[in-house]
Design brief:
It is a single chain. This protein is of the alpha+beta class. It has one domain. Helix content is 33%, strand content 20%. It has two helices and four strands, in the order H-E-E-H-E-E. The radius of gyration is 12 Å and the shape is globular.
């Protein structure tokens, strides 16, 4: 499997986990694989503007606590109240 394919699989799984966590269809999320909202190049973002309020902060805390499963070797960060930043760890 190529690096790009493994990244695509990881971000897809993360988006599915986010959708389930906030209770929306995955198709309602916007996934960006480019610099978005001032993030470093190569960062991904998963956005949902329909609420609940602060879901990226709560999701990040839940991931760090092991309540939700995030992809291995990814750093998650709440970018704002409506998007989650996901950084694949560089080898």
């Amino acid at each position: 499997m190529t690096v790009n394919a493994s990244i695509a699989i990881a971000i897809t799984r993360l988006a599915e986990t986010v959708a389930q966590y906030i209770g929306v269809p995955v198709d309602d999320l916007f996934i960006a694989d480019h610099t978005h909202e001032g993030l470093r190049p190569g960062a991904y973002s998963i956005a949902y503007e329909g609420g609940p309020d602060n879901w990226p902060y709560e999701f990040t805390e839940a991931a760090h606590a092991g309540i939700v499963v995030a992809p291995a070797n990814w750093h998650l960060e709440a970018g704002s109240t409506w998007y989650l930043a996901a950084y694949p760890v560089r080898a």
